[in-house]
Design goal:
The complex is a heterodimer of chains A (about 190) and B (about 160).
Chain A (H helix, E strand, L loop, with lengths): L8 E4 L5 E6 L5 H9 L3 H4 L9 H9 L6 E8 L2 E9 L9 E8 L8 H15 L4 E7 L3 H9 L3 E11 L5 E10 L4 H5 L1
Chain B lengths: L3 E4 L6 E4 L22 H11 L10 H22 L5 H16 L6 H25 L26
Antiparallel strand pairs in B: 1-2
Helix pairs in contact in B: 1-2, 1-4, 2-3, 2-4, 3-4
Classes of the chains: A alpha+beta (about 190), B mainly alpha (about 160).
């Protein structure tokens, strides 16, 4: 169980703006939906679900289970400007692997927010006794790749022409891994 | 690099330069640009190495050894600070910094030594940023303090 007592917590960006990080609640549907509406089409092309539909976001809120998916929102006042999620499995062979996803509002990019959210997920992953964090990124998303690498994620694999965007185009998928302190390799040293 | 090493009497930062020079921050202690900042000594310790002469293309072996030992002292200081925190990710970063530092032996192949020293310093920077993040503060930006050093190169900036 992840300790969520650290939330809400304030984070100051490089430009001096202070945001609040906290888990998504059931009342956040509209503000999260508005956030996704601001995501540029070129980024939406890579989404797994059609987040322009409110019912998709509503379904997330209705089925919130922090043990499986922990969404951390970055808020400026009542506006969502960043969304980072840690996905886990309670059982099975990937129960020690957390999958992370991060999305930043266009006007909040280049301020260090993406890096801060990855850093937050990394902290949560360490506290969750996970062995690995895994990020899947389209190769063209260079800034996201840099942010993950800056946080210690390493390129583990590249799947050529593996995923398609919403227009049908094929793209390379990068898999980046962050190995936790408690991973098997460390314990066997 | 001009000036001599000295410690800020207020924040403990290890600085190099002219102690009579006034800090760039309003109300800053004369001679200390890190005054009143969180983890001032760690920031200053990082930057003293980051902007050190060992990065010059024509750095003599003495400066490389000096940089190597400076990184070692810096990692020890980070370790002392982290001992009072429950930040496993930061501890991981420090471990990687120490591992890279151990791999850097300036007496052997200078090329590899410089690469490992650079890696060690990057991991150290990440550990400092981990500490700052826990306080809700933005990452340390060495270039904000570049005017205090004879900058030998301009590192790239991350922009996400």
């Amino acid at each position: 169980m992840i300790d969520l007592e650290r939330y809400p917590r304030e984070i100051t960006l490089r430009n001096g703006v202070t945001l609040v990080f906290r888990p998504m609640g059931r009342d956040d549907v509209d503000r999260l939906w508005v956030f996704f509406q601001q995501v540029p089409p070129e980024d939406k092309m890579y989404f797994r679900q059609d987040v322009s539909r409110r019912e998709v976001v509503q379904r997330w809120a209705d089925t919130l289970d922090y043990g499986l998916v922990l969404p951390i929102l970055a808020l400026e006042g009542g506006r969502v400007v960043g969304d980072a999620t840690l996905h886990r499995q309670r059982t099975g062979w990937k129960q020690r692997v957390g999958v992370v996803r991060v999305q930043i509002a266009p006007d909040y990019r280049h301020l260090g927010l993406g890096t801060a959210m990855v850093r937050e997920l990394r902290h949560l992953g360490e506290k969750s006794a996970l062995h690995y964090l895994m990020a899947e990124v389209i190769e063209e998303q260079a800034a996201a790749v840099r942010a993950f690498e800056k946080m210690g994620f390493a390129r583990a694999a590249t799947y050529r022409n593996f995923v398609n965007d919403q227009g049908g185009g094929l793209h390379n998928l990068l898999v980046l891994l962050y190995r936790m302190s408690s991973s098997a390799d460390d314990r066997n040293v | 690099m001009a000036g001599t090493d000295y410690h800020c009497p207020h924040c403990g930062a290890e600085l190099r330069g002219d102690p009579r020079r006034r800090g760039s921050r309003s109300g800053g202690t004369p001679g200390c640009p890190y005054d009143a900042l969180a983890y001032a000594a760690l920031r200053a310790g990082h930057d003293a190495v980051y902007f050190g002469a060992w990065r010059r293309i024509d750095a003599p072996p003495l400066e490389i050894r000096r940089g190597y030992h400076g990184i070692g002292r810096h990692l020890e200081a980070i370790g002392r600070e982290l001992a009072g925190h429950d930040l496993p990710a930061a501890g991981r970063d420090l471990d990687q910094a120490i591992e890279a530092h151990r791999a850097a032996d300036p007496r052997e192949d200078a090329r590899d030594a410089l690469r490992f020293m650079d890696n060690a310093l990057s991991y150290a920077h990440r550990a400092i940023d981990d500490l700052l993040h826990e306080k809700g503060l933005p990452p340390h930006q060495p270039m904000d303090f570049a005017e205090w050093y004879d900058v030998v190169e301009v590192p790239f900036r991350d922009d996400w």
